[in-house]
TrEMBL record:
One cellular-component annotation, GO: cytoplasm
SUPFAM superfamilies registered for this protein in UniProt: Arabinanase/levansucrase/invertase, Concanavalin A-like lectins/glucanases
GO molecular function, one term: sucrose alpha-glucosidase activity
Glycosyl hydrolase family 32 C-terminal domain residues: 349-489
Protein name: Glycoside hydrolase family 32 protein
InterPro entries: ConA-like_dom_sf (IPR013320), Glyco_hydro_32 (IPR001362), Glyco_hydro_32_AS (IPR018053), Glyco_hydro_32_C (IPR013189), Glyco_hydro_32_N (IPR013148), Glyco_hydro_beta-prop_sf (IPR023296)
Length: 497
């Protein structure tokens, strides 16, 4: 089989050719979700960064567009964001359509080679055709100068409707910095957050900062999503988050959430190794109101070695992020966007499966496990380990499940096929610690040719990872020593092309 047949995802976004990392500049306008990304079209490793571009009507089926923003010689276009400037606060609009304003990091390779500090600054570009073609704001760039910090990048801009201002968050080495503006062109420093708070195993990158409603109430909170590399939950790149309040100048963690951060060292948006630099979409209509997120489904530990060559890098499934409150505890949950359900072409349902030791749940005769959503509810858990296994006839397997003696979820790709392209790819088993003994465990799992995304208990814990089996997995089974009770099994075939 060709690499295209074996490893091109069925429904996760990949560029036709070349290298891709972080998602950038996502916004919605005129019926389309726009997604830009860190892109090097001429090679399959990281290189001179462009903003690649793709669009979708539903965040599931993507149509690649011409490259949106090109670097100038040695001046790479790094990560950043875009907003719909509805009131033309920037004055960059021409009146026909809402101007789209992108602010990104301009990274100067010449200065980097000279070991200078002021390598990174924030530049602006704008579009007057809903994001298809862009103009660099030559006369006004940079809009944020480098203040003498080497790692100073990845601006994410949002309209703060409470304080009627644009707010920018950016990553400044070991902290997030906040700026404000009335016109997107002049920015004033406000405050910073995060030095000595949360995970600091590596440089902070790609933050996101937004206000969000607590599910089922009118209360709102502010969320800071903060990627870092290395130092992620299970090694390498990872994304943590913080919940609190913003008074227009300063972000302060909620007291209970701060205690949780202290106790757990960091609270993670995803415990898997392959969800990095993710941020949310701008300009989602208020009639919709969702917070929509996508991440880069890879990890700097091995991203440049994964065994695809024509293209490298894919995105996670687009997700809805919600803020829930239990007692006084706030947390984020993530789930696949509902639009994916449109592509269900066949459903197998089973009320319950009971048995001892090993039970087969489904085989490829019934469902193609390279494009499927699998749901089930494990009931009456004992102090035992429940292991789900995806396997093929080549003897390869990907296992995941719940250890209810030591209280964690796990995902093990050590025997999943090609792993030796990097020492770091499968050197450890991924774990997500659970609060304590679980009586029941609800799983939603999204399977593609080279990825698994596990949404546990309605997205309270998420594990996203990639794998490269030499043959497709053809069976899903479950085993445990003390017997299994699996309820509400719903297996959906997806048909997306
Ligand atoms: C994160 C990152 C960003 C940077 C971009 C460069 O993966 O390192 O901080 O802007 O990638 O491609």
């Amino acid at each position: 089989a060709t690499e295209e047949q074996m490893y091109r995802p069925n429904f996760h976004y990949t560029p036709k050719k070349g290298w891709m990392n972080d998602p950038n500049g996502m916004f919605y306008a005129d019926g389309q979700y726009h997604l830009y990304y860190q892109y090097y079209p001429d090679g399959n490793k990281w290189g001179p960064m462009h903003w690649g571009h793709t669009t979708s009507k539903d965040m599931i089926k993507w149509e690649e567009q011409p490259i949106a923003i090109y670097p100038d010689k040695d001046k790479y276009i790094f990560s950043g964001s875009a907003v719909a400037d509805i009131n033309n606060t920037s004055g960059l609009g021409t009146g026909k359509t809402v101007p789209i304003v992108a602010i990104y990091t301009l990274h100067d390779m010449t200065k980097e080679k000279e070991n200078k500090i002021d390598v990174e600054q924030q530049d602006l570009a704008y579009s007057n055709d809903n994001g298809f073609t862009w103009q660099k704001f030559e006369e006004g760039n940079p809009v944020v100068k480098n203040p003498g910090i080497r790692d100073f990048r990845d601006p994410k801009v949002t309209w703060d409707k409470t304080h009627k201002q644009w707010v920018m968050v950016l990553a400044a080495q070991d902290r997030a910095q906040f700026y404000k503006s009335t016109n997107l062109k002049n920015w004033e420093y406000l405050s910073d957050f995060g030095k000595n708070i949360g995970a600091h195993g590596g440089v902070w990158e790609c933050p996101d900062f937004f206000q969000i409603k607590v599910e089922g109430s009118n209360e709102t909170k502010w969320v800071l999503i903060q990627s870092l590399n290395p130092g992620g939950a299970n090694g390498g790149s990872g994304t943590q988050y913080f919940i609190g309040d913003f008074d227009g100048t300063t972000f302060k963690q909620d007291v209970n959430f701060a205690q949780r951060v202290e106790k757990e060292k960091a609270v993670w948006l995803d415990y898997g190794k392959d969800n990095y630099a993710g941020v949310t979409w701008d300009n989602i209509p208020s009639t919709d109101g969702r917070k929509l997120f996508i991440g880069w489904m890879s990890n700097w530990d091995y991203a440049q070695q994964v065994p695809t060559f024509a293209w490298r890098g894919s995105m996670t499934i687009a997700r809805e992020i919600q803020l829930i409150k239990k007692g006084n505890e706030y947390s984020l949950v993530s789930n696949p966007v509902k639009e994916i359900n449109k592509y269900i072409s066949k459903t197998i349902k089973e009320k319950s499966l009971k048995g001892k030791e090993k039970i087969s749940i489904v085989t490829s005769e019934k469902i193609d496990l390279t494009k499927a959503i699998v749901n089930f509810d494990l009931k009456n858990l004992k102090q035992d380990t429940y292991t789900f296994t995806l396997s093929n006839t080549a003897g390869e397997s990907l296992t995941f499940g719940i250890n209810n003696s030591d209280h964690y979820l796990f995902l093990d790709r050590t025997k999943s096929g090609k792993t030796d392209f990097s020492e770091k790819f499968a050197s450890t088993i991924t774990k997500a610690i659970l609060d304590g003994n679980q009586e029941e465990a609800v799983f939603k799992i999204i399977l593609d040719k080279t990825s698994i995304e596990i949404f546990y208990n309605n997205g309270e814990k998420v594990i996203t990872e990639i794998f490269f089996s030499n043959q497709p997995f053809t069976e899903l089974s479950v085993s445990s020593n003390q017997g299994i009770e699996l309820n509400d099994i719903v297996i959906n075939q997806l048909n997306i092309n």
